[in-house]
Fold these 2 entries.
Entry 1:
Amino acid sequence: MDKMVPVPSHSIIPERDLSSKTILEVHRLGIDFGGLHAVEDFSIMLGRTEISGLIGPNGAGKTTVFNLLTNVYQPTHGVILIDGIDTRGKKTWQLNQLGIARTFQNIRLFSKLSVEDNVKIGLHNACQSSLAASMLRLPSYWSAEKKAHETAMELLSIFDMQHMASWESGSLPYGAQRRLEIVRALATSPKVLLLDEPAAGMNPSETAELMQNIKKIRDTFHLAILLIEHDMNLVMGICEGIAVLNYGKIIAKGTPDEIKSNPLVIEAYLGRGKEAKNA
């Protein structure tokens, strides 16, 4: 891992990303549900090729942050910039076109469609043909279909899933469904990939393979990854920077070593006086 260096907003990014504009900037983000401050004063910055983690106890507001970053929820206050563009007032699909994609804590695949078709749905930003070409099966339609098939198979090969292309996605084992969701998100050509508990339900060998594949995705597609995860082995083994959320507020930011030794984190998240593998 590269050395992490400080930047404004009390954040750190990898040294290799210093020469490029940060891909994601979040300033004092918050949302209120009635009188409840679900997320308050949340600020982070991501380098263009950074793998970063967002951790915290159950109910800390982590998935709410992801919903804010993708405008599923409209923030009560604060600013989100994707590659320098303010996302206020934009729809979720517009943010996807700007370059932010996500997976979900609860898998959301089109379970009756094939594995390949699920990936093709994610390719809508890149592989399109006109309605007339589609209806009349013009050469441009078949060219777009050929390109979509080739791209889908290439993406599936990241997780060695190309042989599953014709399988019904709902019939896949749980771990494979999680991997397919990541592939579908990658199909939208994101600049920032948000992974919500990608290792949930995976056994230790699957989790170790996932760690390697996350690094491979970052290196192949040159994108930033922000992940929510409860598996501390994965978080500490792959994340370059980590933010810790508790009761909707960031209580600590730093490198894995700094987070592991932070007294506030030990008390609020890992458990007073001891470290835990899972929380």
Note: Residues 139-156 form the longest helix (18 residues).
Entry 2:
Amino acid sequence: MKKYLKVNNKREARDIMALAISVGQMLLENGAEIYRAEDTVQRICESRDNLYDVDVFGLTSAIFVSLEYESETINMFKTVGGSSINLEKIHILNDFSRRFVTENMSTKRARVFLKSLNRKSPRSLFFRTIFAGVASGFFSILFGASPLDFIATYLIAMIVYFTIVKISKYQMTFFIENFIGAFLSSSLALISVTLGLGKSLDTIIIGVIMLLVPGVAITNAVRDIMSGDFLSGLIGLTKAVFAALAIALGVGVVLNFRFKRGLLL
């Protein structure tokens, strides 16, 4: 990598570190893999000619950076909040980091870009709710849903997704959110089948809870382990296992009620 710019003082070195760690934090909060965030932070720090021995260590809850400037070691860390999945932001941040390195972008210009990205409004809740229903509906078709089951899955998934988004504002743990989502999914599926609005209870439930399944978290954890980040990977797998357990408990409570009451649908 060809370098041109240098930092002139310790304050500028800290500015580069703060910028890099902010990008890493944004990547992790939007569902990126640990190794991707670490590599991005390291490349940004190494883009300046007189910053040496850059070390980055990332976890799902924090990211640490250390580098050497004029024979002095500087350390910095930043906590990472709850993560969601936003592949669009990950793509934008990946593209930004490459341009920052290759174009020798100034930290001031980079900060302006990151602030504009943070202010960027997500898709509207209405838009996301509609397509959450579409996704779940087509998942149910993969498991053999009838047209009636597809419609029931579509409607229930929209209700469940809308509810999860609303309760997430109360900052509950992911375990409780997944339990509530699975419980609501199963309850509404049972009601729809009881009222004749759907035929296959299992298919409807499976289609709806696909919204909750931590597929990206499991994939990221496995990729982290394969890339050598064993601690981060095991943390990710543990979180995914507990998320799956919450989903199983939510569904299990409703199905247990169904069999005890003799609702053999």
Note: The chain has a mean pLDDT of 87.
